[in-house]
User: Which sequence fits this backbone?
């Protein structure tokens, strides 16, 4: 996709539905805030079948993204010290912020795929557009007309998701938020993903960290076991949103409507934590949706994302890898979850 295509929202991209950073900032500006969260919330923590033509349709109703405030309370609780193998001696003195899971007593990973807020104000950003005033406005403008040129009559009738007026006029800097029950943010480049993690006082996961977290403490290829089981994770779904809206799975990957498509009344992109069977367990906690839902950028300046997304026809679980896009590439299926180093736990007195 060229720079001109990105600016106008007309890039087509590779058909990733059938496909086989730097940005490691430590975010010292938020380290104190993380430590305060940790002390308050986790003191003492431990850490498809063959693709037959589906009965597919598009639900034009808007799934409200809202401007959800970031809940500073401990979501799903903290983590208790467990008996997981691995980690250094004395690692019980180190834990993770309330919104992260301790992995192998070595590092922390976000419990959920990231939603985004504006770093300065905390206002929620719509997940259907890139978190950039210029890019979001350009894509919205382009697809107001492009949607009337592709797909069948039903698809053309589907309106664009609303781009909030304040996001048209305000430059934002995204911050990643890990919280349950919200749509994760797609349309992210690796560069923006790295910025969002850095603003949260975190960083992009390294490849070995991401795979370790995905495989769970039992070290299995899938979050739930050693063999693929269709439906356990949000992967290899019944339809591809670009095929449904455009008649071609390889085109129009910046269309803001793609992550709103439903098949048989069910959304292709699910809210964070909704796929309960797709959990990678660590100690008394778990990481959700590391396989499927959205692909996730990792720390590789050459451009790598892992895990697969809901319409990719692959069955390789935590091994799912795409390396042929550059770090500045973005489309509807690309999101992120962040990692961080362990933080010291304040002793309980």
Assistant:
């Amino acid at each position: 996709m060229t720079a001109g295509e990105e600016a106008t929202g007309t890039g087509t991209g590779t058909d990733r539905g059938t496909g086989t950073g730097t940005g490691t900032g430590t975010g010292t500006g938020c380290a104190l805030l993380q430590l305060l969260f940790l002390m308050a919330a986790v003191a003492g923590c431990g850490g498809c079948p063959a693709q037959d033509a589906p009965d597919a349709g598009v639900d034009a109703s808007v799934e409200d993204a809202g401007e959800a405030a970031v809940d500073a309370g401990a979501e799903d609780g903290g983590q208790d010290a467990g008996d997981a193998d691995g980690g250094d001696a004395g690692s019980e003195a180190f834990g993770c912020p309330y919104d992260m899971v301790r992995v192998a007593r070595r590092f922390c990973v976000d419990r959920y795929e990231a939603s985004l807020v504006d770093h300065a104000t905390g206002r929620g950003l719509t997940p259907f557009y890139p978190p950039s005033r210029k890019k979001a406005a350009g894509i919205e403008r382009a697809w107001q007309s492009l949607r009337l040129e592709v797909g069948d009559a039903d698809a053309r009738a589907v309106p664009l998701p609303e781009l909030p007026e304040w996001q048209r006029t305000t430059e934002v800097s995204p911050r990643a938020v890990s919280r349950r029950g919200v749509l994760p943010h797609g349309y992210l480049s690796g560069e923006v993903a790295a910025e969002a993690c850095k603003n949260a006082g975190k960083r992009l996961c390294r490849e070995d960290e991401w795979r370790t977290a995905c495989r769970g403490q039992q070290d299995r290829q899938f979050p739930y076991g050693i063999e693929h089981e269709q439906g356990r994770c949000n992967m290899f779904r019944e339809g591809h949103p670009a095929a449904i809206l455009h008649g071609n799975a390889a085109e129009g990957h910046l269309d803001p409507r793609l992550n709103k498509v439903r098949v048989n009344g069910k959304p292709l992109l699910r809210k964070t934590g909704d796929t309960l069977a797709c959990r990678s367990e660590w100690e008394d906690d778990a990481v959700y949706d590391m396989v499927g839902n959205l692909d996730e950028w990792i720390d590789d300046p050459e451009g790598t994302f892992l895990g697969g997304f809901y319409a990719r026809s692959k069955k390789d679980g935590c091994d799912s890898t795409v390396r042929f896009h550059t770090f500045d590439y973005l489309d509807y299926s690309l999101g992120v979850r962040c990692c961080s180093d362990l933080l010291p736990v304040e002793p309980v007195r």
About this structure: Confidence is low (pLDDT under 50) at residues 1-90. Helices lie at 3-8, 28-41, 133-146, 153-156, 165-169, 190-199, 207-215, 241-246. The first helix runs from residue 3 to 8.
